[in-house]
Design goal:
By secondary structure, the protein is mainly β. It has no helices and 11 strands. Strands 2, 4, 5, 6, 9, 10 and 11 form a 7-stranded mixed sheet that branches. The termini are far apart.
Length: about 120
Amino acid sequence: QVQLVESGGGLVQAGGSLRLSCVASVRTFSTYSMGWFRQAPGKERVFVATIVWSDSSTYYADSVKGRFTISRDNAKNTVYLQMNSLKPEDTAVYYCAAQKFGYRSDYQSYRYWGQGTQVTVSS
């Protein structure tokens, strides 16, 4: 079974930065596409970024493009989300997700999910 544990959330002022990490407890981490999603109170969970298993190509939601960077370290079974120039509207619970041999960005395609980590951006 796949277990995902996020960390790195916290409180930051607008314009600041945070780096989220997600560690996966699987032996075949390199065969999973990894994604980040976020959910604000009263709103749907939405796609943020993904990194593809086969070639580490990346895809971003328009709302974070140019500010966020997703990366992975297969030797550490870890995916990262570097968040720069944070805005109050980035405030949400951020979730790490895994999709084996995946090429999709929609949340329905991700079978495994972490518990989430809170990111709060103050104005």
